[in-house]
Amino acid sequence: MADNTLNATLRTEFGKGAARRTRRAGLVPAVLYGHGSDPVHLSLPGHETFLIIRHSRNAVIELSFDGKSELALVKDVQINHLIRELEHIDLVIVRRDEKVTVDVPVHLVGEPVAGAVAALEAQTISVLAPAISIPESIVVSIEGLEDGAIVTIKDIELPAGVTTEVDGDQAVVVVSIPRAVESADDAAEGVVSELAAGDDTE
After folding, report:
1. Cα(29)–Cα(19) distance, rounded to whole angstroms?
2. pLDDT tens digits, one per residue of 89-118
């Protein structure tokens, strides 16, 4: 787990007006919940929080506030994309020795055979992973795959300690040659055949 440590402060004001004042102060409104505890309303440092969120989809943060600390997984992030501002964050308490269910993005490496394209059927895969070592991505190799190749869940080697309950036959990547390319190849083969036939008649 990366060194994602943030000093947070307790929020005592709520509502849209209070949230706007929090953001104007360079802070991000957040709610921490889970493990049977009452929700805790926090303010997080805006810039530091943005850097953590930007680099990790499933960031785990060590929060220090009110004289104690909690390990928390980022569950939901609301962003104002027009001004690139974090509006609100939901955090859930996790323990270092537990596993959590998260959606991890799929990352393709390599290239299929010439003329073929790889269609990503699953942008993410739901996995059960250790809270302190959630993978940044699930790497899938498509190197040299030919037309018609299908990579399924059961074909993927997951990182150590990571499992999934997703149906093993679910397609993750489908490789195919676009029809336009196939038509062009067929036309080229036809021309070659006609020329060859013409040569024979001569």
Report:
1. 6
2. 999 999 999 999 999 999 999 999 999 999
Give residue 76's Cα distance to chain centre.
Answer: 13
* pTM, 2 dp: 0.81
Longest dimension (CA), the chain: 95
Mean pLDDT on 134-163:
96
Q: What is the pLDDT of residue 192?
A: 52
Residue 119 · residue 176 · CB < 8 Å: yes
Give the span between the Cα atoms of 93 and 40, in whole angstroms. 11
Identify the residue whose tokens are 């269910």: 101
Separation of alpha carbons 87 and 28, rounded Å: 6
Q: Which residues of 115-140 are buried (b: 16+ CB within 10 A; e: fewer)?
A: ebebebebeebebebbbeebbeebeb
The CA distance from 111 to 142, in Å, is 6
The DSSP code for 136 is S
